[in-house]
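Action item from last meeting closed. Structure (135 res):
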């Protein structure tokens, strides 16, 4: 059996993946990068994008947003602010949420409400932009 890369994906809610895989392609802020067994140590901030996990013929794609990746002699660990399997993403629901967020921006009564509404809207726009690229 060929050696595999130990990979862990952690979000604030839970440990999503902890397994040995062939390769992971990470959406770093400086570009996507692939990690195989015995990769040089590295740390990267994540950008909103698609994380590809390869194990044999199986490929698992997850949308990640925020956080960082660390490659060390023990493998790859990703701590993501958000991580969702692509199969669980409901584009229509995200578009409805964006419509509501745009209304909240328009209806903001003070600076704090506007800042909060813009933060929600910007998050949704980032996610939908990534989904447009993979559609």
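Sequence:
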């Amino acid at each position: 059996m060929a050696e595999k890369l130990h990979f862990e994906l952690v979000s604030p809610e839970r440990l999503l993946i902890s397994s040995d895989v062939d390769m992971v392609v990470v959406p770093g802020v400086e570009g996507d990068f692939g990690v195989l067994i015995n990769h040089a140590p590295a740390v990267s901030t994540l950008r909103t994008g698609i994380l590809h996990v390869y194990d044999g013929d199986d490929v698992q794609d997850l949308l990640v947003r925020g956080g960082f990746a660390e490659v060390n002699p023990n493998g790859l660990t990703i701590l993501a602010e958000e991580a969702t399997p692509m199969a669980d993403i409901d584009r229509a629901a995200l578009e409805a949420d964006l419509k509501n967020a745009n209304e909240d921006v328009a209806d903001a009564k003070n600076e704090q409400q506007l800042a909060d509404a813009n933060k929600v809207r910007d998050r949704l726009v980032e996610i939908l932009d990534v989904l447009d690229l993979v559609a």
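Note appended to the action item: The mean pLDDT is 95.
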